[in-house]
Each structure stands twice: as C-alpha cells, then as structure tokens.
Amino acid sequence: MTTAALEPRAGRRCHNTLNSLHSTLFFSPDLATEMGALGITDPRAVNFATRAAAMGRVGPGTVTAAFYNYRYELVARHVPAVWDTAAPDAVLAARARAADATLRRLLGADAVAAPETAEAASLALRATEACTRPGRPLYAAHADLPVPEEAHLRLFHAATLLREHRGDGHLAALAAAGLDGLEALITHTATGRGMTPKWILTTRGWSRPEWDAASERLRGRGLLDDDGELTAEGAALRTGVEEETDRLDRAPYEHLGAEGVARLTELTAALARTAAAAGAFPEGLLGKR
After folding, report:
1. Most exposed: 84, 113, 171, 272, by fewest CB within 10 Å?
2. What is the pLDDT of residues 20-60, one digit of tens each?
C-alpha cells in the first residue's frame, strides 16, 4: 500500500484554516470580558498578556523578541506591569474561559459537540506530535500546557501549538531574509494579504514617520517601488520567506500524512467559515490600504 505524498503547500493551507479558527479569540468580546475581570482592559495589554502568559512572568525584551513586529516601547508600556495586575496562570485560565465562550458563541452548540470537531481535534493533536521545541519559544511554552478535556478546546489548544510552531519558524525566515519587524509588516501588507497600515500603526506601536523610513529602506534595497508596491525582487523575497517557513514547518504535516492533512483542512475550513459568517473578524482588517 502506498501513501500519498504531501503537496508542497498542503501544510500551509492546513495551517491557514487552523490559524483562522485560533485567531477568533483575539477579536472576541469574550476575551475582553474575561481579561477585564482580571483588571486588564487595554487591548494591547490584553494581547501581550494572552499570548505571552505561557512563557511566565517575562519582561518586554522577551515579548518583543518572541512577537517580532511590535515596537519595543509599546511592549514596555504594558510588560511586565501587566503581571502585577494578573499573574500568568490567571491569564491562562481567563484565556481558556474566553476560548470556550468564543467558540460556543461563533460555532454554536451543535458544532461544538459534533463528532467532526472531535475528529479535527484528534488530527490536529496528532500533527503536534512532530513539533519541536528548540528555537521556538512561543511553541515550546505552550507545549508545556496541559491538553484540555473538551473536544473544541483540544482543537483550540492544538491550533495554538501549530500556529506558534509555524510562527516561530516564520520569524527565523524573516530574520534570515534581513527583514526587521516593521519591514516584515510593510512587505506583507504589500502582498495584499497582510493587515492594513491603519491596523498596524494602531496595534503595533509604530509611527507614520517610522513606517515611511522603513519603506525608504526597502526601496533602497529594491524591494518596494515608489508607490509602495512590491517589486519583482520584493515579491520573490516574500515568496522565499513563505517557502522557507513551509520547509521549517513541514514535520507536523508530514507526520499527519496527506490524507490526514486534507481531512483536517476540510474540517477546520468549515468551522472557520462558520466563525467568519458569525462576525468573528472586524471589517477592514486586511488589505494594502
């Protein structure tokens, strides 16, 4: 019996559906409610605490390094002070409650309890068996957390692991390509698949002059044209970054196998579509302008 070979971008497609489902948490009013109950109300503090809590009571340098594209001064405005408001363990518990409420609200009780959700969780967790810790701080921290009991939360946990595993590798690929955090954001936006400049400047702490200076650096390297569009060289660089990210993140999906990856993609894409249709994401999030 032969096993079908994994297509080159199959892992990326699977990750994208998992990441869409996982990302619903960061735009959820349920997260704001749970974190607000802990005394954390600033949206940026919520974001830093929610993603960094698995690493423990870390400082702004660690968060800036692990998150890559946030301005250090913005991070330092909230970290480590946020841990004086709520300890990392309390934040993790609040995040779990918010994930539960978010998925139940967006997907509905029937989907949460459906056997397909349990199947997706099992497949995603199987993929995580091939993830590796060295050089992947956010993945490694989350991999130390216990696996929840309920299927929809097991799926969310596995999606988090796979997201952070790929994300850590992606940052290595960006650094190898010579793109700093802001340059990475600008070139991603220029592909049409990244966040709009408005979202970046609002949430990442960069100023318009810093954006313009980074754009000028990219033009000096021949990666952007005068209109802020990627040149052929810039497009090739971004393609290379994504392909290197695919290579660094291939192991979980090879471990799951082509049939398992296809099935997991099918299941999570359906859930992600349901979540999006229920209003999971704000208008105007993605785009060049």
Report:
1. 84
2. 999 999 999 999 999 999 999 999 999 999 999 999 999 99
Around 145, how many Cα atoms within 13 Å sit in the side-chain half-sphere? 28
Residues 4 and 75: their CA atoms lie apart, in Å, by 45
Phi, psi (degrees; rounded to nearest 5) at 66: -75, -30
Q: Is residue 256 in a domain?
A: yes
Residue at 47 is within a domain: yes
CA distances from 33 to 30, 46, 60, 280 (A): 5, 10, 24, 16
Rounded Cα–Cα distance for residues 143 and 160 (Å): 9
**Number of domains comprising the chain:** 1
**pTM of the entire structure?**
0.94
C-alpha radius of gyration, the chain, whole number:
19
Domain-embedded: residue 257: yes
Task: Give the whole-angstrom CA distance, residue 35 versus residue 46.
Answer: 7
- The rounded Cα 123 to chain-centroid distance in angstroms is 19
Is 204 domain-assigned?
Answer: no
Tens of pLDDT, residues 232-268: 999 999 999 999 999 999 999 999 999 999 999 999 9
Structural domain span for residue 116: 10-175+242-277
Q: Are the beta carbons of 121 and 152 closer than 8 angstroms?
A: yes
